[in-house]
Write a structure and sequence with these properties.
This protein has six helices and seven strands; from the N terminus they run ααβαββαββααββ. It is of the alpha+beta class. A hairpin with a 2-residue loop joins strand 4 and strand 5. Helix 2 packs antiparallel against helix 3, helix 4 runs antiparallel to helix 6 and helix 5 packs parallel to helix 6.
Length: 233
């Protein structure tokens, strides 16, 4: 799978954000994303304790189940995308990534998923790049649509492409700048944590992240990871 655009794009500035600063940024993003389903669980339990009508109690239980599944799916995805999931080896089973993506975006049928990754395993850093690009592209599908994920290894390394196609695509301009390395790390907001991590991992390997969003209703995000760089932890 060829990388997006030209291979001679300008490199962004060197980033020196400290590990504890990024940890704070990431925690803010995680708390924001988990607040809604966990808050729904809390509200549902409160409603259930005061509700005596059997039909309403059954509906409360249904909503509690939906919120619990949403919370679990988010945690599974974040553990793989941001954490140390996948064991102690350098390679991770790509099926884990597929299951995590399906759990986060494919549960309600709002987004149709396409999986074009034939590699059975992938280096941890490369898999994190893939998942974080998927997170950005999936969030951009504000009215649903289709999300296609592809990756291909070759002699030069690994190419990752994520394509979002829908009636309305909304990509925060800050995320685009962070992915390209065109932003001061001191100004990065928590919502850009995934973009920052993807940029840093790719830049660390000597690769590039590229974004194409000129076509209406279509967003393409690609990453080229040179050979050797995809195997870093």
């Amino acid at each position: 799978m060829p990388p997006l655009g030209s291979s001679d794009a300008q490199q962004g500035p060197a980033f020196v954000m400290k590990s504890h600063e990024f940890a704070s940024l990431l925690c803010s993003r995680l708390c924001h994303d988990l607040l809604s389903p966990v808050g729904a669980l809390n509200n549902g339990i409160e409603l259930l304790s005061d509700e005596h009508d059997p039909e309403m109690r059954a509906r409360c239980m249904e909503l509690l189940g939906e919120s619990a599944r949403a919370s679990a799916n988010k945690l599974k995805f974040f553990r793989l995308a941001f954490g140390a999931a996948g064991g102690f080896g350098e390679e991770v089973d790509t099926r884990e990534a597929r299951v995590a993506i399906e759990g986060l975006f494919g549960g309600d049928g709002r987004i149709q998923l396409g999986w074009m990754v034939d590699e059975p395993t992938m280096g941890k850093s490369a898999l994190k790049v893939l998942l974080n690009l998927v997170l950005i592209a999936g969030d951009a599908l504000v009215r649903g649509g289709r999300l296609d994920v592809g990756a291909e290894k070759h002699d030069g390394g690994l190419d990752i492409v994520v394509r979002a196609d829908g009636p309305r695509i909304v990509l925060d301009p800050e995320l685009k700048r962070v992915l390209a390395g065109e932003v001061d790390e001191e100004t990065i907001a928590p919502r850009a944590a995934a973009a920052w991590l993807a940029h840093c991992l790719v830049d660390e390997s000597g690769g590039q992240v590229q974004v194409a969003d000129q076509e209406e209703g279509v967003l393409l995000i690609g990453a080229s990871v040179p050979a050797g760089g995809s195997d870093r932890k």
